Amino acid sequence: MNNWELGYTFNSKFSTSVYYLRMKNTFGQLFFIDVLSQVSELTGINFMKIVGEKKKYILTTAYSEYALEGYEHNIIDYLLKPVSFERFYKSALKAQERFPSSEETGDSYFFVKSSGQQHKINFNDILYVESIKDYVNIRTSNEEYIVLDTLKSLGNQLSDKFVRVHKSFIVNLDKTKNIGIKRIILLSEQEIPIGESYRSNLLNKIK
What we know:
Elements: H1 13-23, E1 30-34, H2 44-51, E2 56-61, H3 67-70, E3 75-80, H4 85-96, H5 102-105, E4 109-114, E5 117-122, E6 126-132, E7 135-140, E8 144-148, H6 151-155, E9 162-166, E10 169-172, E11 176-179, E12 183-186, E13 191-193, H7 199-205
Parallel strand pairs: 1-2, 2-3
Antiparallel strand pairs: 4-5, 6-7, 6-10, 7-8, 9-10, 11-12, 12-13
């Protein structure tokens, strides 16, 4: 579970109204949600209907009678309040098993939302990914895509040929020309810095 990252939390009408539409199109894939949570005029069940079955859910509620309705959607587990840490952790491990890596699925591409449109990006086309505050810039040889996501979250969906080399950069090793002590030169002649804390992992990757 070391590769997981908390994306959003919300417990008010305001925060949900701002974020739930964003969530529908970001890389966040797992939601812990209360079945009867009244946020932005949505119950938890309605939230799942709107966000869609491409996402997965773990339901938390004090009302066991809603479990059946919840299982009509793409839920992984059902936590009855009060929830102990042991029960929460077991549920999270169960969820982790439901998210295969790109190597396991054989995927060679993924979709991202940028500039109001969904874009199909082939892994082989990516030169590097750069973190820019709350966004990431996915750079290919011809295009760049600004996406609302974190570098860690996006990196979890890439194949093993991608490696994080800096707090702000992930590079495609297939697109590298030279790897020095402090920087990487890409085939496109762009220079990417190597963070000191990331150097050891990078060297292990290229052995």
